[in-house]
Amino acid sequence: MSMEVTAWNQLYRMNERQERRALSRATLRRVAAFARPHRLRLAWFLGLSVIAAALAVGSPVLAGRVVDTIVGGGPASTVVTIALVIAGLALAEAGIGLLSRWLSASIGEGLILDLRTAVFDHVQRMPIAFFTRTRTGALVSRLNNDVVGAQRAFTDVLSSVLGNLVTLVLTLSVMISLSWQITLLALLLLPVFVLPARRMGVRIARLRREAADHNAAMGNQMVERFSAPGATLVKLYGRPDAESAEFAGRARRVRDIGVRAAMTQTLFVTALTLVSALALALVYGLGGVYALRGSLDAGSVVALALLLTRLYAPLTALANARVDVMSALVSFERVFEVLDLKPLIADKPDARAVPDGPVAVEFDDVRFAYPAADKVSLASLEEVAVLDARGGEEVLHGVSFRAEPGQMVALVGSSGAGKSTIAQLLARLYDVDSGAVRLAGTDVRDLSAASIRGTLGMVTQDGHLFHDTIRANLLFARPEASDAELWEVLRRARLGTLIESLPDGLDTMVGERGYRLSGGERQRLTIARLLLAQPRVVVLDEATAALDSTNEAAVQAALAEALQGRTALVIAHRLATIRAADQILVIEDGRVVERGRHAELLAQEGRYAELYRTQYAEEEELAA
Asked: What are the pLDDT digits (tens) for 29-38?
């Protein structure tokens, strides 16, 4: 490796370093646990790295022997033999290099697979509060950048440290045996190589961090503005020019930083290339004088010059080995940071299934407070310095009610009263702090998550769909469903005729969050998905609140299909839609303040009657 290549490599390695952290024995133990399945390949990889390092020193020594043989007028057969040995070493180095690269890729990609699946599976078990607080981009970065950074500890750092150590020891040994004076002078030039690398590396790292911040900001701007709702907001409020100016300003700053970084790098590499030339001049000059005096062979001069090019790379790498190891371990720690967040919801070892047959829903003196941020999130994932200290305040205070099998219980009340919280507790998206939520007489904490998912279906106001086909969005509820079953639920959801009219039918892409469909069509498709799942309990969380009267009528007809014969918990925004409910609960400030049927509550002249009259008056005004 030339001095110039070494300079570039070391500079880029400096740019990638992060802040130093103390080695944690616990972290190292966990790293070892992830490495254990790859230990055999890892041993072979490290062994080959040592052999490759030893072979790298052999070629310069043999090259010196060739020169000595030629100068001494030795037989041609000796020169040919040495040349063949050099060729053999080159072939061996090439073969070992290919095998090492395969082992490196195999270990590295295997580790990436293990880490990514571990983080992905763990994140899926996190509570909804985790996702409401975390920036998606920061979480995705843990699965991509940090996982890749972690695998460097195995493929780059370990082999680099071991290989460079062997190379350094062998190179120095051979150089000292040839000429300790020249070797000493070569080592005296090392600070000229290493110290500028540290200073320039820090400066360029600072520039690159600033560029990374601007790139991240541009990335966030693009993600938010290029989504359907974000693009709509920009167009509605007439801000394209301002958005473009803001984006262009950041892009220009990244350009300026790139120019400065490129010039700093070029200046650094040029200076070190000059040092390389001076070092070689020293070897040839001083070595040549020694050779003319007869105290050093001509071949030794050539060998020293070739060995010099292999000396600085391992020296600088080993001088910075601790920082390299720390940098790799930082990525592991960032991955472990996510894995150390404990899921709030977990199945008990003896968790059982919801009993067969009709299902009753019961809330028994339920009290609940949303978890504080430190229980469900990380400051680094929220991209804040300190987590929000708020949380832990009780939002449900002794809520009790029962829905018999096949009954509909409606929840009404002001926004923020706790209605959606009740629905989330029933689905066991959170666990109660005290009291109990029961399905078919069994506490949901004693049931398996899979059983709850198979028993309960929910339709929310936003009716979320994945950027995929209609078929894929439906099959998310029941992957084994046939096309005939898909068309049946679409018909029951009042969507069959529409989907049949589309050129691609079930294979029509719905777009991001389903934005290629109208609001009513999107909601009916989520109802079709619910029908396909065939739940015994249905939760409707303001499923028609955002729809106009025409779409609401179509959705209500689809909902009638979904509710038929099922126990239902309905959170209603429009009170006219829940007149037929078996029981209506008025929720205010986390408490049930009224309960009864529609006519009974109107007769009480309480909060329900007030809500109903207010809404009725507003609808009359709009109609007028």
From this structure: 888 888 888 8
